[in-house]
Amino acid sequence: MRGEECSDPLINPSDEIRSDYVYRDRTNNDEVEGCFCSEGFIEEGKKQLGLAVPLVAVSILQYCLQVISVMFVGHLGELPLSSASMATSFASVTGFSVLLGMGSALETLCGQAYGAKQYHMLGVYTQRAIFILLALTIPLAFIWYQTTFILVTLGQDHDISAGAGDYNRWMIPGLFAYGVLQCLVRLLQAQNNVVPMMITSGITVIFHVFMCWLFLFKFGLGNRGAALANAVSYWINMLLLALYVKFSQSCAKTFTGFSREAFSDVLGFMRLAIPSAIMICFEYWSFEMVVLLSGLLPNPRLETSVLSISLNTCWMVYMISVGLGGAVSTRVSNELGAGNPQRARLAVCVAAVIATSEGLIVGTTTILVRRLWGKLYSNEDEVIEYVAKIMPLLALSDFLDGFQCVLSVINLGAFYVVGIPCAVLLAFFFHVGGMGLWIGIICGLCVQAVALVIINLCTNWDEQVMKAVGRVQETEALQ
């Protein structure tokens, strides 16, 4: 588990910071065996589910903003649906996934700091991440502004590209709020304080549905109304959460106000954030590339509409795995920061069992609702029938993707050496169409799942906890 240098005025430098934990965890065989007994397994499962259920709700509610907008636009016609879908995919590739990946570095940093009782550093890390992500948002916003030009250059249909560009321009203000929101979510997540996030996200979704109806049908803004509703909703969610962090007593120790330390060790943060962003972006891009490739198939409006519906469905289900992954990341970071390698290993084992169970349930549900799901997005019989046909493939990909989300990532080889080439071969050379694109993604997921299981089985948890403890001791010695 990676981390970064940190300081903490709340811990007495004269203490032997975490060495006693490491020693006890290595030498007390009874404690080690107790971790992996049925009682220890169940106890860890309760901790993860107690943290994961609100995180899952938060992830789904936040992603629902984009899904709801596309659903509203879909009832305006096939061209508006394909344009909004293409815009959403492009926005995810060039904006949302980048900020999400950079912000994910806080799961490790804040989680380890909280486990080591370095509460002040949570606020410092969060402020540092906010400054960096806001700076990064400026070039990303410029890319969004050029959406139409970029899509046309890539060979996409001109009408779809024009609509997508218009959509993303109106959504640019929301990109700034989205970056800050990801940082605040990680701050609270590291403290196991997730209920406020669920409440604020729920309030935002309610407002979002109203704004979509108002902007699209009352003000007649069409695609622009859906994009504007997205932007406003991200700002509402971010401001509600920021107010909670500012005034809640539960954050009094972890967010003590502005700190100049936030501007120090920026490179240290980037060393962790950039690999995190690359890991997440490689997977997000591989899925979103399916929608971009669908625009090159015959009948691009139909293929883009159906593949985007499939992708929206896949990402919404994926948010369940994101919540589970966030829970296990927090648990592992907390235990490593506290010097407990065996408990960190137990957390990963429990997470794998939970992810497998979740995948089976979600996959079964996806198949059962396959003939109803398309009606939520479109009134076109052709679209509804195509969605029903591709849903079984979604069920399989949801299962595999959820499993790997909990166990970390190895995306470059799995998706770009296996997944995407298989997708292109099946879709364009064997003429399987949009379903061929999705089968290619499943091939990549299979390779990824096998590789991740092997990597996690070979992880030396004693070595990982010594690295985490060493970082804490090193920074304490510098104070």
Automatic annotation (TrEMBL):
The keyword RNA-binding does not apply. The chain crosses the membrane at residues 51-74, 86-109, 130-150, 170-188, 195-216, 228-245, 266-285, 305-325, 346-369, 406-430, 437-457. Its main location: membrane. It is found in: Membrane. GO terms for cellular component: membrane. It is a multi-pass membrane protein. The keyword Glycoprotein does not apply. Keywords: Membrane, Transmembrane, Transmembrane helix. InterPro entries: MATE_euk, MATE_fam. GO terms for molecular function: antiporter activity; xenobiotic transmembrane transporter activity. One of its GO terms (biological process) is xenobiotic detoxification by transmembrane export across the plasma membrane. Belongs to the multi antimicrobial extrusion (MATE) (TC 2.A.66.1) family. PANTHER family: MULTIDRUG RESISTANCE PROTEIN. This is Protein DETOXIFICATION. The lineage of its organism: Eukaryota, Viridiplantae, Streptophyta, Embryophyta, Tracheophyta.
